[in-house]
């Protein structure tokens, strides 16, 4: 059973709130989303897989759950900062810089368990095939329709 546009709108408005939460089922995994504090003044939406966010999932691909790449946010980070690139090119010149620093313009990709906005999370989750909505804000979504 697919999730309707109205249900996605309810999920988005719930997650945009101060204490937003939602629960999904994807295959054998339970995906729970909670608004948590990242710092003193910042909150983010944390995506838990079967109730966990394990540190080893960030570094060891063989320990990652199968659905991690679908539900976590893909991010990229430049290996060298723009200021460093500028400094290297000024020191070596473009040709020599490329010779001595072959990864000068490359980026590394990784998956992040935090989403900054409800809109970006919902946009990504809408594309996941076979995802089922279980709870919105602790309330089973069927009872919200009545």
Describe the structure.
The protein is α+β, with helices and mostly antiparallel strands. The protein has helices spanning 5-16, 56-59, 68-71, 82-92, 94-100, 118-126, 141-145; strands at residues 21-26, 29-37, 43-49, 73-78, 107-112, 114-115, 131-136, 139-140. Helix content is 36%, strand content 30%. The strands form two sheets. Strands 6-3-2-1-7-8 form a six-stranded antiparallel beta sheet. Strands 4-5 form a two-stranded antiparallel sheet. The model has no long low-confidence stretch (mean pLDDT 87).
Topology:
Elements (H helix, E strand, L loop, with lengths): L4 H12 L4 E6 L2 E9 L5 E7 L6 H4 L8 H4 L1 E6 L3 H11 L1 H7 L6 E6 L1 E2 L2 H9 L4 E6 L2 E2 H5 L1
Antiparallel strand pairs: 1-2, 1-7, 2-3, 3-6, 4-5, 7-8
Helix pairs in contact: 1-6, 4-5
Can you summarize this structure?
With 146 residues, the chain is an alpha+beta fold. Helices cover 36% and strands 30% of the residues.
């Amino acid at each position: 059973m697919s999730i309707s546009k109205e249900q996605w709108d309810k999920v988005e408005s719930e997650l945009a709130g101060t204490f937003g939460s939602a629960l999904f089922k994807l295959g054998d995994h339970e995906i729970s989303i909670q608004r948590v504090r990242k710092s003193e003044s910042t909150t983010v939406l944390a995506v838990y897989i079967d109730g966990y966010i394990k540190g080893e999932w960030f570094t060891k691909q063989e320990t990652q759950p199968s659905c991690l790449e679908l539900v976590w946010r893909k991010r990229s980070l430049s290996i060298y900062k723009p200021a460093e690139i500028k400094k290297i090119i000024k020191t070596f010149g473009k040709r020599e810089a490329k010779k001595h620093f072959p990864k000068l313009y490359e980026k590394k990709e990784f998956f992040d368990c935090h989403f900054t906005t409800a809109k970006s999370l919902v946009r990504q989750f809408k594309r996941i095939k076979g995802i089922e909505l279980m709870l919105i804000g602790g309330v089973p979504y069927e009872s919200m329709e009545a």
